[in-house]
Amino acid sequence: MAKVADPTAVREQVRAFALGLPGAVEEFPWGESVIKVNKKVFVFLGVDDGSHPPGVTLKLKDPEAHAHALTAPGAEPAGYGLGKSGWVRVPLAEQGAPPAELLCDWAEESYRVIAPKKLIAELDGG
């Protein structure tokens, strides 16, 4: 049986990756960790106090990435109507949850949807 990656470690890898993107900052509205660029959220990391199952929520405009994310165990369109605009919540504690590397790719995809062009150019080494 495949070992389930430690959800806390996976969440931390995604957080560290997202914070490494140009202009990214972490804030804690509603007591949950979010990563923003240009004052707009591109990754919701939720709370890490154990009160909710660990997961990440990302905006995936690319139809392939969006569809792929929704195939993750327990994944669903994000609540509060965010699912309609491409946001997907991906649980991290489920058997077969996506690996950190894939989640980081999705975090970058989400960043590219939201970040200003000049920061995307910086990310691309421009």
UniProtKB/TrEMBL annotation:
Keywords of the record: DNA-binding
Family annotation (InterPro entries): YjbR-like_sf, YjbR/MT2646/Rv2570-like
GO molecular function per UniProt: DNA binding
Gene3D superfamilies attached to this UniProt entry: 3.90.1150.30
Keyword Transmembrane attached: no
Coiled coil ranges: none
Transmembrane segments: none
Protein name per UniProt: MmcQ/YjbR family DNA-binding protein
Species of provenance: Streptomyces decoyicus
Taxonomy of the source species: Bacteria, Bacillati, Actinomycetota, Actinomycetes, Kitasatosporales
